[in-house]
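[SOLVED] Need 3D model of a two-part complex

Original post:
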Amino acid sequence: QKEVEQNSGPLSVPEGAIASLNCTYSDRVSQSFFWYRQYSGKSPELIMSIYSNGDKEDGRFTAQLNKASQYVSLLIRDSQPSDSATYLCAVILIYNFNKFYFGSGTKLNVKP
Amino acid sequence: EAQVTQNPRYLITVTGKKLTVTCSQNMNHEYMSWYRQDPGLGLRQIYYSMNVEATDKGDVPEGYKVSRKEKRNFPLILESPSPNQTSLYFCASKTTGTGYTGELFFGEGSRLTVL
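Solution:
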């Protein structure tokens, strides 16, 4: 069973819309959660991290965590064509901060 | 400039020919790790290192070796490459200042093809 599941997409949204990316994880002792953005042919870069239930906002990005439902999401408001990329969800477990488990990523297309 | 540098960026080799992918970081990070990325499978951890002379297996260590003799370097060794090791490889590092620190800094990736 995969640790982290994401819909591979592609998710297509028009410019200016809200993009909603979702991630579920299987291990109830998952501790910390991360969203990485990866442009085609490039390396991943950290967008958001979230550790507690609820919402965390950073500019146009909001991460939402619901540990009871084992669900973390990323909302991108006012989506721009430059947001078109693959978004990777990652988790680390409470008993091993050294092992990162990545989802396979959701490809987002923002259409002008 | 803070960075993680991998070499080579692209490599085509043949089955059984030993190769090493180097990784170096200039941020004085304790933690370094290797991942492979395959379509539909995402990033999978191969090995990681908490510090010099401290390495441990990730989820897909078979066919790979690593060493950490210096803090800044963490080479990935394929003793006898096989076609199923054709992949995009990323080296990453982070500080271990706090237990929840999650920002991994990635190298630019090394695309390896084994014929």
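Edit: Chain A has no helices and eleven strands.
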